[in-house]
Specification:
Length: about 230
Amino acid sequence: MYCVKCGVSLQKGIQACPLCGTRVFHPDILEDADPAPYPPYAGDETVSHSGALFIVSVLFAIPLVLCLLIDLQLHRSVTWSGYVAGGLLLGYLVLCLPLWFQRRNPVAFFPIDMAGVALFLLYLCLKTGERWFLPFALPVSGGVLLIGETVLVLLRYAVGSARHRWLYIVGGALIATGALCVLIEFLLKVAFGAGMRWWSLYPLVALVLLGIMLVVIGVCRPLRESLHKRFFI
């Protein structure tokens, strides 16, 4: 056996050439590869969260069923347990239902959440024998749904490569929320006979000023770039 570089005759079992230091190579001898420190990558593997979500669902269901059974045993009807059950179902709808889906689009789930809130408020109104759902709860829920869904749709589909557009969207949402505060005070007067103390003007002025500030930042490019350099916004 000879060195592949300088041609010096090598002794059997030698690892490197004593003259040039070249590592001995023999094509008929296969070297044992060291075992890998971890198993080979098997490709894309999706982790299923169904087991954990099932456990969370059971944890929500246990107090719900227990409250209903205790209420039925004590009063032979659904009295206070309906409020607990409605609150638990609403919490599960908002917190856990989106986790069952791989693509959690807030544009699709926000109307479902608001529908759940409206149904729970309707149940409270009917259970207490009041009539504030149509003149108060329904318009307020609709206003929140309209503002929130508009913001989500615009942020998801209208921002694109122009990242500063979110300033217009959030600014407009703040102004609309200020107007919603005035509407809420007016609906309180209509539904419950509360006097107009015009407390809604304070959040209206604050939110409108904040909204105008964001819109101005979005319009004025030098100001936007200066703030981005200083505060990374």
